[in-house]
Specification:
five-stranded antiparallel sheet; three-stranded antiparallel sheet; 1 helix; SLAF1 protein
């Protein structure tokens, strides 16, 4: 078994000079004393210690490093659709195949349908009168490092020919992953 007191030192800083023991794997930024871990993977998800020694005093900070897989493009599935008493009811499910700690939210840029589309969670239950010719809702799948959006446009309550749903992708964006320890 391994000695529990054994530690891997990434970087040492002393009197304005530093030694990077993980050259090519970490980058030290002397300007703000941050340490960037390059090409992170899930194996880097652990507790790291930041130790400052000054004379006989030592301060130790423990930092939990979290590593997230970016969210993949989400898709929307129609789980149910019903027409009754001049109103339409549609149940939609938004899911992303990949990504860690993904959260889902629904919304709309159209002020007429904003209230219909506002919801947190992957499931959205739409209920609207048929006078609303078109309902456009967008699902956002996100986590701390990325965000992806997909739109749903319903122009009528009846099923489309061939059972396909009218789904269109919006511009997708992903936030860069930058982890730094300070």
């Amino acid at each position: 078994t391994e000695d529990p007191q054994r530690k891997l030192i990434l970087l040492k800083y002393l009197d304005g000079n530093y030694t990077n023991y993980m050259q090519g794997r970490t980058r030290f930024h002397k300007l703000d004393f941050s340490l960037e871990i390059l090409n992170t993977s899930r194996e880097d998800r652990q507790i790291h210690e930041y130790i400052v020694s000054k004379g006989s005093e030592e301060k130790v900070w423990q930092i939990q490093l979290e590593v997230y897989e970016p969210v993949s493009n989400p898709s929307i599935q129609i789980l149910g659709r019903a027409l009754a008493n001049g109103s339409c009811t549609i149940t939609l499910n938004c899911t992303a195949e990949r990504g860690d700690n993904v959260s889902y939210s629904w919304g709309s840029q159209d002020t007429r349908t904003l209230g219909l589309c506002s919801h947190n969670g992957s499931l959205l239950h739409l209920f609207y009168p048929l006078q609303n010719a078109s309902v456009a809702c967008a699902c956002t799948a996100s986590n701390p490092v990325s965000s992806r959006v997909v739109a749903f446009n319903s122009s009528e309550c009846s099923y489309e020919q061939g059972g396909k749903s009218p789904i269109a992708d919006l511009a997708l964006s992903s936030l860069p992953l930058l982890l730094s320890l300070c």
